[in-house]
Amino acid sequence: MVERRPALTLLSHLMLWLGVAIVAFPVYLAWVASTHTASTIAQSVPLPLWPGEHGLDNYALALLGGVGESGSRYPATLPMLGVSLASALIISLGKIAISLLSAFAIVYFRFPLRQVVFWMVFVTLMLPVEVRIGPTYQVVADLGLLNTYAGLTVPLIASATATFLFRQFFLTVADELVEAARIDGAGPMRFFFDVLLPLSATPMAALFVIQFIYGWNQYLWPLLVTTDESMYPIVLGIKRLIAGEVYTDWNIVMAVTLLAMLPPAVVVIGMQKWFVKGLVDTEK
Q1: % of the chain surpassing 90 pLDDT
Q2: Mean pLDDT of all residues in 18-38
Q3: Cis peptide bond N-terminal to 46, omega within 30
Q4: Confidence band of 70 (pLDDT split at 50, 70, 90)
Q5: So where are the chain's domains?
Q6: Which secondary-structure segment (H or E) carries 40?
Q7: Considering only CA atoms, which of 232, 81, 69 is closest in space to residue 149?
Q8: Residues 6+ apart with CB under 8 A from 81
Q9: How is domain 81-232 classified at the architecture level of CATH?
Q10: CA dist 178 to 97, 104, 184, 197, Å?
Q11: Which residues lie closer than 8 Å to 25 by C-beta, 6 or more apart?
């Protein structure tokens, strides 16, 4: 029986609120800055703590592009958000699909050197994109995939981590389900689609959240494989706003930054229940 102590409960809630305040305060400052003019931000020390009256104009300029207060021309970030969204979805869904099939083959098929194959896949965790970026870029360039969605996503799709997690999950599935499916005349792929996929819904949801954020936050790889502005993701767009200019309109930078935070935040909040359940649920 858990003993309830009001003092400890109050202390724990205070610590939680303190943590939320520490995390949320910079985001609040960014939102406040995005509602002021660039000159107000530059002249105010410290930054204003209350929102201004130029929020709609700043966000319209951030989304649709135009000339800022400094005279610099800013590109529209709406297409960049579309590129980031498409790339993140392709990467996350591709990782899940390939990892599901890989784990299914490793767990349910008997073939020579099966464990060796699994450990070869697992060892690739020590070779992230940053380590093999030179050869990977050469392959993508030779195939003519620069400035394409395939070039942005295909080298990032394979995931040893997801394969390992699905393998561990499949090992916990009762053998009786396999025998029952075999007695009913179900083939391997029917067993995969009718039995394993429904059971894997929560791990898939948890991995989708993780891999979506991973794909959305990619910076180094898109920096190498994209030279056309129409294929820039939003992370590169933010870097462009604060690089190479004598005077930076920080209100526009903050507006673009908050816009870039929205899709991952929506995914995390919308799938929070599935995310937590996929990480901790052990029921089959």
Answers
A1: 36
A2: 90
A3: yes
A4: low
A5: 81-232
A6: helix 38-43
A7: 232
A8: 234, 259, 260, 263
A9: Orthogonal Bundle (1.10)
A10: 21, 12, 10, 13
A11: none
Query: Residue 19: exposed, middle, or buried by beta-carbon count in 10 A (0-12, 13-18, 19+)?
Result: exposed
Kindly report the number of other CB atoms within 10 A of residue 79's CB atom.
17
Q: Tokens at residue 48, please?
A: 């204003």
Q: How many CA atoms lie within 13 A of 122 on its CB side?
A: 13
Task: Give residue 280's pLDDT band: very low, low, confident or very high (50, 70, 90).
Answer: low
Can you spell out the DSSP letters for 240-275?
Answer: HHTSS-SS--HHHHHHHHHHHHHHHHHHHHHTHHHH
Please answer whether residues 87 and 73 qualify as being in contact, where contact means their C-beta atoms are separated by less than 8 angstroms: no
Q: pTM to 2 decimals? A: 0.87
Q: Which residue bears the tokens 């080298």? A: 155
Amino acid of residue 141: A
How would DSSP label each residue in 146-171?
Answer: TTSHHHHHGGGT--HHHHHHHHHHHH
DSSP H or E stretch at residue 74: strand 73-74
3-state class of 132 per DSSP? coil
- Averaged over 151-156, what is the pLDDT? 92
Q: Could you report the per-residue pLDDT of 190-239, keeping only the tens digit for each?
A: 999 988 998 888 889 989 999 999 999 999 999 999 988 889 999 998 88
How much is the pLDDT for 1?
46
Classify burial at 216, counting beta carbons within 10 Å of its beta carbon; exposed 0-12, middle 13-18, buried 19 or more.
Answer: buried
Token pair in block for residue 86: 């498409």
pLDDT at 160 over 70: yes
